Records
---
Amino acid sequence: MFALIQSYPLLIGILLIALDLLLWHFIPVQRRALRIGLRLVVFLVFTWVLISSGVSPLQPAPWADDLARNLLATVLGIGWWLFAARTMTVVLGVILVSRSSHTGRLLQDVLGAVIFLIAIVAAAAYVLQLPVKGLLATSGVMAIVIGLALQSTLSDVFSGIVLNTTRPYQIGDSISIDGTEGKVIDIDWRATRLLTGNGSLAVIPNSVAAKAKLLNFSQPNDVHGVSISVVVPAKVRPRRVLDALEKTLQGTRTLLSTPAPKVTIKSSNLESVEYEASGFVSAMSQKTEVRNHMFDLAHRHLEAAGVVWNADTQTPQAWSRQRALLEDVRIFRSLTNEEKDSLSQRMTAVEYLADQMILGVGDSSDYVLVIGTGVVSAGIRDGDKQIEAGRMGPGEVLGVEGLLETENSTAEFRTLTSCILYRIDKDDVRNCLEQRGEVKTALIKLQRIRQQTRQSLLEQKPAAIKKGGFLSWLHK
């Protein structure tokens, strides 16, 4: 065995290296421990082959008088250093990946390059007996020249190392870099790649990302900010706008109670004032839906507060609040203007304080109630437990039970804020049902959706509601 090793060390070394490559290629990536273990075993066997044949990677070949044998020993010595560098790089990569997942890849590549550079210098110094000091001096001059030529690229590389070490964002995070928003799909040597909202690819150099203002919307994982801004003429009293936007936040059930939602004045000038209503949701996927819903609620609450957005958009006819509400109630949209005018004149206002019962479970009402201002909570009973099904705002109706069937309320309606509700006698609504089939169809749809949602909540299953949430389908 030893004679064979001494006679054919290069052939055996090549066979061991080929065996290492085959094992590394055919063993599945998922079996990482086996791959690393076999590579270490092959490297140790390769080291044993060299030592058994009288070759040391720390010394030049000892057979100066035998040119062929000396050349074989030199090749094996250089191969040992490269094999050792490769093995060390793989082991280091496993350690980095296990600790920092994908973000350690760039650091692994840089360290791997440094390890191979050290191995090459060591092979030149120990095996080839080259003057390393002169080589390092020459390579230093070349490094300066190359560094000046590749200054921008090197800046991206080292910025990438900093980003992967400090980890302000990771693969899969939704971030904004200097106003460019998108989902991080890759971080490599030179740049960070983002998939933007319109499906395009944004490539941000790492040096720019390291210096830019960065927002990570995915951290922390369970709290994500969502906000809307509205601009109102400066002549409108701020307290009216702030109250309306606070009701908007109260009417958005998806917002977290902690951190608490808030309304602030962002900026103002002689012509207009900008307000911002902000809160937090528990999932990134909710942000778009909640933001759209907040805009819709803000419009309704501001309109209920009498805030005029643009005087040019007013209708020629000065409608009362009751008449304007009927334009937003979907079950009455099929009525003609004359029918709406007549119905609005028979609507009477009733004021409720905060946390006051409007209708309880099993109660019957002689009126259909249209919310004029404020926020109303709708809840259902599950045994002794009260479940909040949703929150309602201006333009939404309650008390419609008994119009199509002789049934009482299956939900409890309670005010969350002070409210003004407008009563419509059910006999007037029944006349509309007889005259307009569209009113009956809309009412059937409304009751069916409410029954389905109630059943879904009782079964502890998410309700199959269209985008827009509970308030949206109540309104429809």
Note: Confidence is low (pLDDT under 50) at residues 99-103, 461-476.
---
Amino acid sequence: MTRLIRLVLVAALAMTALAVRPALAWGDYGHRTIAAIAEANVSPKVRARIRTLLAQEKELATPECPLKTLEDASVWADCIRRDDLRWGYSAPWHYVNIDICKPFDIKANCPNGSCVPAQVMRNQKLLADRKLPAHARLEALAWLTHTMGDMHQPMHAGDRGDLGGNRVSASYGIVEGRMNLHRLWDGPIAERAITQGAPMVRRYTAPERSPYLTGSVEDWALETWSIARDTVYPTAQHGPACGPAIPSGGRARHDDADIETLIPVVRQQVLRAGLRLAAELERALG
């Protein structure tokens, strides 16, 4: 192998590693897709009311984190995390890491409402409260749009005491880099799933929407946790969910066949989140 070819390969691998960093994750492309699905499935009246709230953007004083569209709102909560002094307290609002090898219990894993399902419910109520000033409702809109997405990402719901897969090194086909199991689900698998197959952003019919709109927020969190238990960890470990964990220094390897089996799971979660968000926006703003 010539020195030039080696340099090209190193550069390509470096770019690949950068491409799977969390900034390009479910916190970006996936979240924006969820918001776009929701916006396509609300009424014109609700879209107009969303635009009215977004006009209050300056009142939140987060100029580095724009809030001009619902897609912007979907990633605003990740953007403001850079300002730890002002928003650091909100970090636990993005997840609820419930051990997949123990009984599902939100309350035991959500101290003082600091978990993603509790924040979905909290911001539903705040957004619907028309006595609140518009900027407060805009903040609730942004949090609801974001946390509805987070709650449907399996690595934000279930784990094995590994910080939602952040402590488990992972590979995506031949790509390894600095990837972990959480980043794998956030980025490359989500991006491939959304872009592979029929476009996901469209107006869905009532019969298409209705199967996803039953149950409570807790039911939806349980559904996502069950995917972590029944799909994510068995695939990553190539064995039972609660069998031997991947040892320190090991890697959760995902070949192309593994990835193909995960794509419909991701697509379904993105669709569930988008249609459920649309329903909540209709309920709060309709």
Note: The chain has one domain: 20-285.
